[in-house]
Amino acid sequence: MADANYDNGEVITQVRQQIALANAQEMLSKMTEKCFRKCISRPGKALDGSEQRCITQCMDRFLDTWNLVSRTYGNRLEREQNAMQSENALN
């Protein structure tokens, strides 16, 4: 039985890692698409200085926003879990 619990825990860990990887890939794809549309008016062989600055600022803002939303969502989930645990303890 202990082996089954270990295997389940290992599977859950692997699934969480795959979900995290998929989320990171999705974020990178969205950030690339959004910043490219915003900053690159005429694609060419190289980025000029203003395009480089725009891309850098766009990516920084996107990542800051993503982190803020992720933290806020995580905090909300934690509060809801705590509320459910408190409710269950009262029952």
TrEMBL record:
Membrane topology: Peripheral membrane protein
Domain of life: Eukaryota
Swiss-Prot/TrEMBL keywords: Chaperone, Disulfide bond, Membrane, Mitochondrion, Mitochondrion inner membrane, Protein transport, Translocation, Transport
Subcellular location: Mitochondrion inner membrane
Ranges where the Tim10-like domain occurs: 14-74
Predominant location category: mitochondrion
UniProt note: domains: The twin CX3C motif contains 4 conserved Cys residues that form 2 disulfide bonds in the mitochondrial intermembrane space.
Family: Belongs to the small Tim family.
Biological function: Mitochondrial intermembrane chaperone that participates in the import and insertion of some multi-pass transmembrane proteins into the mitochondrial inner membrane. Also required for the transfer of beta-barrel precursors from the TOM complex to the sorting and assembly machinery (SAM complex) of the outer membrane. Acts as a chaperone-like protein that protects the hydrophobic precursors from aggregation and guide them through the mitochondrial intermembrane space.
Oligomeric and partner information: Heterohexamer.
Protein known as: Mitochondrial import inner membrane translocase subunit
Lineage per the UniProt record: Eukaryota, Metazoa, Ecdysozoa, Arthropoda, Hexapoda
